[in-house]
Amino acid sequence: MRKMLLAACAAAMMCGCGGGKNTADNPFFTEWDTPFGVPPFEQIKPEHYKPAFMQGMEEQKAEIDAIVKNTEDATFENTIVALDQSGALLNKVSYVFFGQTNANTNEELQAINVEISPLLTQHGDDISMNPELFARVKAVYEKKESAGLDKEQMKLLEETYKDFVRGGANLDSVNQAKLRELNTEIASLQTTFGQNMLKETNAFRLVIDKKEDLAGLPANLIAVAAETAKADSMEGKWVFTLHNPSVMPFLQYADNRELREKIFKGYINRGNNGNENDNNEVCAHLVKARLEKAKLMGYDDYASFILETRMAKTPEAVYNLLNQVWTPAIAKAKEELADIKEEIKKDGKDFEPEGWDWRYYADRAKKAKYDFDENLIRPYLKLENVREGLFIFANKLYGVTFTQIEDIPLPHPDAIAFECKDKDGSHLGVLYFDFFPRESKRGGAWCGQYRSQTYKDGKKVAPVVTIVCNFTKPAAGQPALLNADEAATMFHEFGHALHNLFRDVHYYGISSVPRDFVELPSQVNEHWVFEPDMLKEYAKHYETGEIIPAELVERLTQSGKYGQGFATTEYLAASLLDMDFHTMKEIPENFKVMDFEQKTLGERGLLSQIPSRYRTTYFNHTMGGGYTAGYYSYLWSEVLDADAFEAYKETGNIFNTEVADRFRKYVLTPGGIDDAMKMYVNFRGKEPNIEPLLRNRGLK
User: 92, 204, 401, 623: which is deepest, by most CB within 10 A?
Assistant: First the structure.
């Protein structure tokens, strides 16, 4: 049951108790009479959430009570299915609330989040540690071989039993009470961490009032900075922020080294400034609470507890993969550092490069080696054209279509909606896009859901999916032109969307796949982005309509692997940091997380110019939950996706529909019905190896 509730929170991706329902004006207490039953976003107010949460928990408690008091012997239907289908209202409000706190938050929603998070945790614990409920689940589980269950039903039963055991059902009352305390503490700390990080990101402003200090910056970035300044009542100046579309190109192009240093330090010190939003103590307490929970559950460390249900299974398997890639990545990064030093010499300068110099001089080294400027690509990557490319891609592989829906409630005025139809014309779901950064939206890009695919009364209920990004916002009157990374990000998140749209399972409890498998459907899509046969479909000059020239694509391809030393190393540093925190078996007194970060990465030989992609105090993937002891998952999945794309290449046709049909059947449709590696082998016919990954990254 905890998995079901947390899935709603994560999919939407992560002080009194009063407030009864008011059916007169609370949209959560009515059936939604909207196109495709999407949430009526414009009708939902902050004051509607708490009463809906409270009523949702009350209703689920009553449903659980009915299961427990059933005088009939426990069966799959009256216990396992009844439990899986309980909490409909709670799921309904959770999907919307957590989707909005990620994409369109405000102080009211943040306050509700702080209040409701521990209540939801306690509610989940009440279910997981209900001895009478567990007794019925256990009774069904112990007779599973004679129950006549099909494959999907058997998996649900096994997962339900496992969730109860991992939720503390076998602990005695004293340890259950301790587990409840730890779960509440962890949930509260994760919420605080995320809110602090958002405040820190939004608080920083680099204000420039001299035009000469803009030297080197692209015109579109300057124009956006001017509009940001105007919005901040500083018309005539330029404002740069710590949102990626602002800070990253600034570090890559700004000639002014002092300003690069200022924005770089602002970026890497988020949550580490000793102010009211400081995350040092939050992280220290969080790591300690997680370890206490792991030991309470009988594990040596938190990573071992988490990884037991993942593909990797053990910390040793994770470290084995990360270390295989670390050595060639560091070697490649040192080669890139030598190139950077050469570029500094060309400038007639004599200083040791720092972190704020890397992107700037690496970009110059790349241009020198390959005579290629990535800004040459932007005119061919108009956002709307790339989006259309996604639809062409999906149609060629799977036969599905997307049609824009004009008159439909939107999660934010910036969002747009599309209906997805299968090859036979049947409705698959609704897909929202929300592309540009704002202060109410957390950073990064993600795919979430406002409703998960399920079945109700024997009929399939289609999902409502959302892709949320933080792409470079265009200046007034100008089109949004993406860079190569942003185009790849759009294809990546679209892979998650297809996974959500194609899933077809009957039970919530088996709808999800292991964390280290979940990135396969997204990352495999990235392989198509700059394939010539794909580019000719969507990469057209926004002014002339000209298809991107073949020679420009060739230069892009040749230069594409340059910088992989930096990119791979910064990613691995974060993955190793995540694992190192959560394989600790003892937490020292006065534990200092930033000292730990410096020590553990320094001992591995991380170059001083390359910070971890996410430093501890803004590492939301692990400290905010979701990818805790799991940030390695992107690399683990990359082993799979690199090998999976080979299946298409081997046929000589990257749009081979027979391969795509197998991928949809065995990877995208079945949820978590099978073991993850078995699903992959069913598709590929063999287990993957690491060689394609190393080749793709230019590390071999």
Answer: 623
